[in-house]
Each structure stands twice: as C-alpha cells, then as structure tokens.
Amino acid sequence: MTLLLLLTLAIDIPLGLDRYLPTPPNNPLTPQTVSLGKSLFSDPRLSRDQSTSCSTCHNPQLAFTDSLPKARGIRNQTGPRRTPRIANRAWGKSFFWDGRAATLEEQVLGPIANPLEMDLDPDIAARRVGISVQQLQNALASYVRTILSGDSPYDRRLAGNPTALTAQQRAGLALFRGKANCASCHLGPNLTDEELHTTGLNQGRIKTPSLRDAARTPPYMHDGSLDTLEDVIRFYNDGGKPHPNLDPEIQPLNLSRDEQASLAAFLHALNGRIRDGL
C-alpha cells in the first residue's frame, strides 16, 4: 500500500463524501505539510501590510467565509466578488468563481498576489515566513484539501436514516431533484457540476458553487446580491435574469409559496459537520 493511500485513509472523511480524496502525486498529504499550511492560513505576514490572512476572508467560525456581500482585502478594499466557500475543494475541477485556476496549488497564491486582497508578491511572502514559494503553495493547498463538510441530515437520509429529514425537507428534496431542477447543476456528493454557467447576474460565466453549508453562509450569488436563500429561490423561480447568454437550464419554475418554503427547508438540511486538518 502506498504512502499516499495510507495518509488518505487516515483522514476523517465525513459521511456522504467520496472516500477517495484526490491528491496530486507531487504534493502528497503529510502531517507536516498540512500543519504548516494550517498555520500559514491564519498568518497575516502573507499580506503586504501584515493585516490580513487567508482566514480573514475564510473564517473557520463562519464556515470558512466572511458573511460579506463582496470580499474585503487590505486597506479595506472591496473586491468584485463574494468570498466563496472552500470546504470540499479537494474534489474541485477548477478554482475561483470564473474557474481560471486549474489546481489548488495554483489557486492559493492568487489571493496573496491580488492587489485587492493581500497585495504581496508570493516570493516576498514566502521569504517572510522562511520557506520557498513552492513550499508555501504546497502547504496551503494541502491544508485546504483537508477542509471538509459532510455528515449533514441529507447525508444521513441517503445513508438510510428515515428520520434524518423532516416531512417538509423531504418534500424539498423531491422538488430539488424534480420540478425545481436544481440537480441539473447541483449534483453528486459535492452538489455541484463544477461547470461554468450564466445566470443573468454577470457578463461572463460563473462556476456552480457547492450547496453544502449554503444556509450558514449568506449572502448569495457570486456578487453577494441576494440576501437570503428565499431570495435565491425566488430568483430561479422567476427564471433568472434576462441575458442573451442565459443558461438554457434556467427557466421559470412556477413553484408555489409552499413549494418554495419546502425547498428552502431542504437546503438547511445540507449543513454538515465541518472539519479540517489530519
């Protein structure tokens, strides 16, 4: 058995997630690398003025988000998009809202260099903490791979517990898979197709976010323009926002108020157990 497989088996993967945790062969998970990454994640020395860390926007106490409509970096600068949830990104196919990064190793350096976020050359950031840039990105990516969320009421229902969901949540699940058509994009263990879509709120295409822990992390959409889950459901019930490139899956749903309430109740059942580290 390889070292990689042994380490993967040692991770506490919550119920409902794929038991195989993808890890690149050139950056295997090790206790030392993950521990370093966890420390660096909350280290403000990675920002130009040493005021901001990864955990400033990805606060573990807020399901690794920041509760703001749009991300806020050093010097109180506001970015163009909301801070995304990062649990279960080990299974990600692309990263950032626009999918511009192909790997977590590539993604983790982006916020450090971004002038609206941490505004520091990664080479300088690495020297400040006494390591190489490659060690910096490998450590941060390794730690992020261990941020997992599962074992939600939804997962327990799928695992055979008939009482894990309320009657209203079961009705919402049926709508999610059927009339509301949510599962056309929010599918699989991580409830995302990892594809880019146009909903009408943006000029380009935006990656489908996972719905895990969505009820814990308002506001919503990539631009933080919708305050509540109920607002999101109404947005899609109305068929999104008119746009010449609107995704064809987005159509008026004709959900009643009771059906919308059931769908919202089901989304609360996606709140899971969040854990990090080895």
Give the end-to-end Cα distance, rounded to a whole number of Å: 19 Å
| Structural domain count | 2
Fraction of residues in H or I helices: 25-40%
Give the class-level CATH name of the largest domain. Answer: Mainly Alpha
What is the CATH fold-level name of the largest domain?
Cytochrome Bc1 Complex, Chain D, domain 2
Report the mean per-residue pLDDT as an integer.
95
What gyration radius follows from the Cα positions, in whole Å? Answer: 19 Å
CATH architecture of the largest domain: Orthogonal Bundle
Backbone shape: globular
Total of helices: 11
Q: How many beta-strand segments? A: 4
How would you name the CATH homologous superfamily of the largest domain? Cytochrome c-like domain
Overview of this structure, please?
The protein has two domains: 3-148, Orthogonal Bundle (Cytochrome Bc1 Complex, Chain D, domain 2), CATH 1.10.760; 150-275, Orthogonal Bundle (Cytochrome Bc1 Complex, Chain D, domain 2), CATH 1.10.760. It contains eleven helices and four strands; from the N terminus they run αααααααβααββααβ. The strands form two sheets. It has a two-stranded antiparallel sheet. α2 (31-41) crosses α7 (133-145), α9 packs across α11 and α10 (229-237) packs across α11 (257-268). The chain has helices at residues 3-10, 31-41, 54-57, 104-107, 110-113, 122-128, 133-145, 153-158, 167-177, 229-237, 257-268, and strands spanning 148-150, 196-197, 206-207, 273-275. The longest helix is centred in the middle third of the chain and has 13 residues, at 133-145. The two termini are 19 Å apart. The radius of gyration is 19 Å and the shape is globular. With 278 residues, it is mainly α.
